[in-house]
Amino acid sequence: MRVTRRFIILLLSVVISLPLFTQEPPPDWYLGKPIKEFSFSGLSAVSENEIRGILRPYVGKIFTNDLFWEIQSKLYALEYFDEIIPSAQPADENYSAVIIHFEVKEFPSVDRITFEGNQRVRDSELLDTILLKRGDMVTQAKLRADERAIIELYHEKGFPEASVEGVLREGDRGTEVVFVISEGPQIIVRSITFSGNLLYPEKTLRGLMKTKPQGFLVSGVYNEQTFQEDLRKIEDYYAQRGYIDARITHVEKTEEIEGDRHYLHITIYLSEGEQYRFGGITFEGNKIFSTERLRELFSLEEGDIFDRTAFSRDYQKLLDLYYENGYIFNRIDLREEKDSEQHLVSYHVMIEERGRAHIENIILRGNTKTKDFVILRELPIEEGDVFSKTKIVEGLRNLYNLQYFTSIAPETPAGSTEGLMNLVINVEEAPTANIQFGVNFGGSSDFPVAATVAWSDQNFLGYGLDFGVNLTAAPNEQTLGFNYTDRWLFGKRWTGGVSLSISHKDTGKTIPQDTAIDGIIFTGNEDNAVPDNGLYTGQWVDAETGEIVPNPSQEQIDAGDVITDYEYARRNGFNIPEEYLMSYETWAISFGINTGYRFYTPVGRLTPSTYFSTSLTTLDYDASRYRPFDPTTRENRGKWLFVNKWNLGVSLDTRDIFYSPSSGYYLSQQLLFVGGFLGGSRHYIQPTTKMEGYLTLFDIPVAENWNFKWVLAAHTRLTYNLDQFWVPEGATYQATSLDQLYVDGFFVGRGWPREPIGGGRTLWDNWIELRMPLIEQIMWWDFYFDFPAFSVDVTAPWDIPLENYRFGVGGGIRFVIPQFPLRFYIAKRFKVVDDKIEWQEGSLFPDSLGLDFVFTIGYDLY
């Protein structure tokens, strides 16, 4: 790539254009002039509209040398052009503005990618390994990077002599990229033995190694890089136990050739040495931090068996202490002092303290769509601030949580003078616009096709705005909605959003009715009113034993000592048969606004928030066939009613990555007011308390791009539907079946059918998950244990009967892509009835395992 570094070409271009005017301007006439527009020549595969979109923010700005280098750097960062020749042209005869013209030479475009010489690795696997794709601009740097990727793949598969050469061949329609491969022999490890190991057996040392002899379910392929890491692990194992002189003195490799396979016998020779203890640590030159402050960073005490790994980890804490406070130019030397007679190892730290480093410039690269200010506002550090490693890490975490970028790579080159640093943030943008089309055939005979069309962009126009439109047409629901959210109102951490939706829903046959099929008709206001259910008539029974109580007193009823036979049955898992249930339809027009503010505190991100929504709703059903048990439902049929909701909330969040945390916790308290002093047709209060925690159990590097990692996640959420503290005269607790709380099998209680029928007033959702990344930025494997519980009454969680818990265990794939937040599990459900486990039959392998296939959406990020 030939980069134009001087303005000589720019000046020559200006001189060439001078004959167009009668009066010769000064050579640097363009400096200080506004940029009117940009023009281009030489574009072929690259869209001019794309380039103009990138340069549009510079139109109207005053031309300076620094601004020009920024513009040219953005163009080169696209990796579209091998050469860019700029020129300045006057916008008018008065030279009042400047037109910047770019003559470009594009990199060749890839038309085809082929491989030659690969006998043991498939083309498809090689294509997945390289970064170049058809239609990409190919550079020598990209070609060399893909060569290295292919060689690394072959090394992982046991071909240490593999070589690759990338060749560009011109074709009729473009450039063909050909990778010519020489594979060489595959080497398989047949045996690994040790010599000189007196302290630890071969089995222990072999267990430390990733390199394994060929065996059952073990390929045994030899990878030199992995083997060298194994040797270091063995030495580290000894050093962690005080044997700091332990060394691998020699490795003997014997090859055995059988056909096209090369087998390897490895013998590792060890010198174990003597065990050392820690003799202490001293410091010299430290004035900023006291010796006591530095000493407490080290966990080893004098006389302890020396652990080099623990000491190195603690020494890094010392370095971080200085770095996090901006002292990155300090010179810190660590001197080891070893007493071979006493078998003691001591350390002396020499510190040359210098002034704090400051950020001179923050430079962004790779953000072609996202505006600079969207990135900069997420960084808790600005130009001129003291350099802080902690703040930079926090800023990078904020950028990852935006989900706008697939890669974020910081650099910290030196600034223009001593004491100054530049912070360069390289990003690779991810697609943030999401278009969903879904069609499902089946379901209702009246509406056999369910369709969903949704478009959203969480980085709308690159301004960090969340905007979306959705249309759903399903057998039981049709919705048209719009939403808009700005997370940085007025440049502050102040969130504001609005939403508007129009919807129609069919509840399905979930609504209790009262038509005297097998009972009596109640008004719904009697103390012992119960819906038709086929078995229970509303007679009074003891709340604890279920025995009939013929004539209870009002005191017994009010105290809850007696309940109806139907209520007792519900508490013990009875569900109304479908023939005693009905459905109704609802229509709603809703409007909502929300706001919140994010405070960054030492204990986490504190976010108070609120939202208000109002909706106009109505419901209808066939009154000639159905009579809802709920008198409110009967009363509201055919009426357009307002439903007003106001939510107050606060949360505390320390999670590292919102959408797939590996550490931290999330605490939230929400209080939803519906009706009451707000007016409207529904009246209840819904408090929700939520707690989540995440802990990385271990994180072991296995390959360059994959770690063997387990994350333990736990969640609990308690929700109530309570009576309003004030309601209009004549009103009471009023909530439709849609407002009630359910184990729905989708968001709560994975795989379970929706219950309780008619809904409950207490819901306690609990789960524990063990998570392992398959491709960390794309999908994970999760094991889970669900144990939600419900109650039809307002009940303390410890008083919910065991029969009302819905248990489930399973495992499956969880996608963490924002546009594809789906989860697919294989599960087994059970509940406890009469103190016995009752396993539920699923549709998978019904004659044996009886498992369930479970599909859910990982929707709950905040």
Termini separation comes to: 46 Å
- Uncertain residue ranges: 1-22, 440-449
CATH homologous superfamily of the largest domain, by name? membrane protein fhac: a member of the omp85/tpsb transporter family
Shape: globular
Query: Architecture of the largest domain, according to CATH?
Result: Beta Barrel
Number of discrete domains: 8
Supply Rg: 35 Å
Largest sheet: 19 strands, antiparallel
Query: What is the third-level CATH name, the topology of the largest domain?
Result: Porin
Secondary structure: helix percent: 10-25%
Percent of residues in beta strands: 35-45%
Mean pLDDT: 87
Structural class: alpha+beta
CATH class of the largest domain: Mainly Beta
Number of continuous helical runs: 14
Number of strands: 40
Give the key terms.
single chain, alpha+beta, Ubiquitin-like (UB roll), 8 domains, three-stranded mixed β-sheet, 14 helices, globular
Layout of strands and helices, then pairs:
Blueprint (H helix, E strand, L loop, with lengths): L7 H10 L17 E7 L6 H8 L9 H13 L3 E10 L7 E9 L3 E7 L6 H7 L10 H17 L6 E8 L4 E8 L3 E10 L6 H6 L16 H16 L7 E12 L2 E11 L5 E8 L6 H5 L12 H16 L7 E9 L4 E9 L5 E8 L6 H5 L12 H14 L2 E7 L8 E10 L3 E9 L7 E12 L4 E9 L3 E10 L7 E13 L4 E2 L27 E3 L11 H6 L2 E3 H7 L9 E2 L2 E13 L1 E3 L2 E17 L10 H6 L4 E13 L10 E11 L9 E20 L2 E15 L20 E3 L11 E6 L1 E14 L3 E8 L2 E3 L15 E9 L6 E12 L2 E4 L12 E6 L5
Parallel strand pairs: 1-3, 4-6, 7-9, 10-12, 13-15
Antiparallel strand pairs: 2-3, 5-6, 8-9, 11-12, 14-15, 16-17, 17-18, 18-19, 19-20, 20-25, 21-24, 22-23, 25-27, 26-27, 27-28, 28-29, 29-30, 30-31, 31-34, 32-33, 34-35, 34-36, 35-37, 37-38, 38-39, 38-40
